[in-house]
């Protein structure tokens, strides 16, 4: 299974982002807390020297200890970084304060470009900050297509389409991004992805798996779950595609527990994503 997704609209969006950077005072780099290092787009890091705030979204779905480690790590590197849970509005006040501090002294209200990979919550973040529902939000990647200015809460925010990069350096990163739904499911081998995820969870977060599916003993966890859940084809064989969709949905909605797929900063060695931060 090789995962690759770089549709034409992302090339266009990258150009638009480069143009938009000239118009703004800084950027909010939106990163998914379940993949704090894999979801930072190496292409974006090189775009500008303007002030940047890293916003770690979906902290409700991530391992809290790892979230803290990543935030502490970035702060120790001199970055501004805030964690948010946009479903409950947690961390949004703190982010507002960081924005206010960063742009204190500026005569106009800050204009910020919101960037990140698909489906990390860029539009949801804009709605939370502006206290409006101006930006379209959706549980699949590729919802925002054009750029759109939205104002409120004392700032002017520019929403942008999520972009990935043309080639993933390693498929482990690609799989993690696919697991958090940053890559369209239609271009994936979902059964392969779900099997990989289940094996990984068995090793790293077995408790959530057991609570949801009971004890798993068969060599293929995906098949066992499919059988337990009655995802069967007419002949009685397990419908692996249906079972995979089920498992991925459970993972993405937090039913398998709060999980961070990336290692902690202390465990990552020579990571491309932050060597130049
Ligand atoms: N659990 C949880 N879900 C969130 C959070 N923030 C956003 N979401 C959900 O994530 C999904 C994607 O949100 P969007 O705001 O559309 O993401 P986006 O980054 O704008 O996506 P694109 O425009 O497709 O690139 C939606 O289903 C949101 O409800 C969060 O903090 N926690
Ligand atoms: Mg969007």
Task: Give me some keywords for this one.
6 strands, six-stranded mixed β-sheet, Conserved Hypothetical Protein Ylqf, Chain: A, domain 2, alpha/beta, 277 residues, binds guanosine-5'-triphosphate
Helix content bin: 25-40%
| Distinct small molecules | guanosine-5'-triphosphate, magnesium ion
Low-confidence stretches: 271-277
Strand content: 5-15%
Q: How are the strands ordered across the major sheet? A: 3-2-1-4-6-5
How widely separated are the two ends? 32 Å
- Whole-number count of domains: 2
Question: What CATH architecture of the largest domain would you give?
Answer: 3-Layer(aba) Sandwich
Task: From the 3D structure, determine the CATH topology of the largest domain.
Answer: Rossmann fold
> Can you count the helices?
10
The whole-number mean of residue pLDDT values reads 92
Total beta-strand segments:
6
Structural class, from secondary structure content?
alpha/beta
General description of the model:
The protein is α/β, with parallel strands linked by helices and 277 residues long. The protein is built from ten helices and six strands; from the N terminus they run H-E-H-E-H-E-H-E-H-E-E-H-H-H-H-H. A six-stranded mixed β-sheet has the order 3-2-1-4-6-5, sandwiched between helices. The radius of gyration is 19 Å and the shape is elongated. The two termini are 32 Å apart. Guanosine-5'-triphosphate binds next to helix 5.
């Amino acid at each position: 299974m090789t995962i690759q997704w770089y549709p034409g609209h992302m090339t266009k969006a990258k150009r638009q982002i480069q143009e938009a950077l000239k118009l703004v005072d800084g950027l909010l780099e939106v990163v998914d807390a379940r993949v704090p290092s894999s979801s930072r787009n190496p292409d974006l890091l090189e775009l500008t020297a303007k002030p940047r705030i890293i916003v770690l979204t979906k902290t409700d779905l991530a391992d809290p200890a790892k979230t803290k480690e990543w935030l502490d790590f970035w702060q120790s590197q001199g970055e501004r970084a805030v964690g948010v849970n946009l479903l409950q509005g947690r961390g949004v006040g703190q982010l507002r304060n960081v924005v206010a501090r960063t742009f204190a002294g500026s005569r106009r209200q800050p204009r910020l470009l919101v960037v990140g990979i698909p489906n990390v919550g860029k539009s949801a973040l804009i709605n939370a900050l502006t206290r409006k529902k101006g930006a379209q939000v959706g549980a699949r990647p590729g919802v925002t297509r054009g750029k759109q200015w939205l104002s409120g809460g004392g700032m002017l925010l520019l929403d942008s389409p999520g972009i990935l990069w043309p080639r993933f350096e390693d498929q482990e990163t690609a799989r993690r991004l696919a697991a958090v739904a940053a890559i369209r499911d239609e271009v994936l081998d979902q059964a392969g992805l779900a099997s990989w995820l289940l094996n990984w969870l068995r090793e790293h977060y077995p408790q959530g798996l057991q609570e949801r599916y009971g004890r798993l003993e068969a060599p293929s966890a995906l098949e066992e779950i499919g059988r337990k859940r009655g995802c069967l084809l007419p002949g009685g064989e397990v419908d692996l595609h249906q079972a995979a969709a089920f498992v991925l949905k459970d993972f993405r909605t937090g039913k398998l527990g709060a999980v961070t797929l990336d290692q902690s900063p202390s465990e990552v060695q020579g990571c491309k994503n932050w060597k130049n931060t």
